[in-house]
Design a protein that fits this description.
The chain is of the alpha/beta class and 291 residues long. The protein contains 14 helices and seven strands.
Length: 291
């Protein structure tokens, strides 16, 4: 399987970040477990990859440095330095103002300093979470696909009812989306498995309805299963997830990618909430709500 990835990469040379993502998406099912782990981390933390050493990245991913080197070679690259250059070009490219912001990101304490954070110091935890949110917002401001965002809102506008699948860490974002949609007059249902009636809630999705899926790494199995079943039955799916390798991204008519910074097992939900708020406000305006 690794040989197949290398040969395919030779025919579709990785020249920039976009072509790297295309190669990873094409071969998402052929990567080994550890290489898939590296791919997920790299797509979710591109700035970290651009500025850190292979040893530091290996610690963050939880693999030996040699695994990252092999991962680069599996993709048809000479090694980690060539792979890192793809991420550096993406970050530092022509956007000089963003490069200035990146310099500040490097110099200020942030999510990369979590290992050294005194988690018993509430002030320090607060500082790190604030910086994580700032970094995530900078990233999404730079990278959110506006065409997909427009398609997202247009599809919601045409839907009769929006059914929201969001659980565990994403539940708060799903609950807020339900609240926001209800307040602009859009019929919405939250698939919350109350009374163990997830199947009955799913069965309520009509032919002109939309399933809004919200899930991030480590993707909630129940949410993934609901999304897969909906797609197989011809339902329209919209997804808010973390990257192109997410198991729900290829099932969605439109997908928006939100890379959320972490503090241990906790994620900053700020960027995802901003995305949901922008969707709800835009949809409300189309529906004549808000003046």
């Amino acid at each position: 399987m690794r040989k197949a990835v290398r040969e395919s990469s030779g025919n579709n040379q990785i020249s920039d970040y976009e072509s790297l993502v295309e190669v990873l998406v094409r071969h998402r099912g052929t990567l080994s477990r550890r290489h898939a782990q590296v791919a997920q981390f790299f797509l979710n933390h591109p700035e970290e990859v651009a500025i850190n050493t292979i040893v530091r990245l290996a610690e963050q991913v939880g693999v030996p440095p040699a695994t990252i080197t092999r991962f680069a070679k599996v993709l048809g690259l000479s090694g980690f330095p060539e792979l890192q250059s793809v991420f550096r070009e993406r970050v530092l490219g022509p956007g000089l103002s963003y490069a200035d912001r990146l310099t500040e990101l490097i110099e200020r304490p942030g999510p990369s300093d979590i290992a050294d954070t005194d988690l018993e110091d509430p002030g320090r935890v607060f500082d790190v979470l604030v910086q994580a949110a700032i970094n995530s917002l900078m990233r999404i401001d730079q990278n959110l696909n506006r065409v997909e965002l427009e398609g997202f809102v247009a599809t919601l506008a045409e839907a009769e009812v929006v059914h929201i699948a969001a659980a565990r860490g994403a539940f708060g974002i799903g609950a807020y989306s339900f609240y926001g949609l209800a307040n602009i007059g859009k019929r919405a249902h939250l698939i919350d498995n109350l009374g163990a009636m997830r199947a009955e809630q799913f069965a309520a999705i009509g032919p002109r309805d939309v399933l809004l899926t919200i899930t991030f790494d480590d993707y909630t199995p129940e949410t993934v299963e609901i999304t897969r079943t909906a797609a197989e039955r011809g339902k329209t799916v919209l997804a808010i997830t973390d990257n192109e390798l997410s198991p729900v991204s290829r099932l969605a008519k439109h997908a928006l990618f939100v890379k959320e910074a972490r503090l241990g097992h906790f994620r900053s939900q700020v960027p995802a909430l901003v995305v949901c708020q922008s969707i709800i406000v835009s949809l409300g305006r189309r529906m004549g709500v808000g003046g």
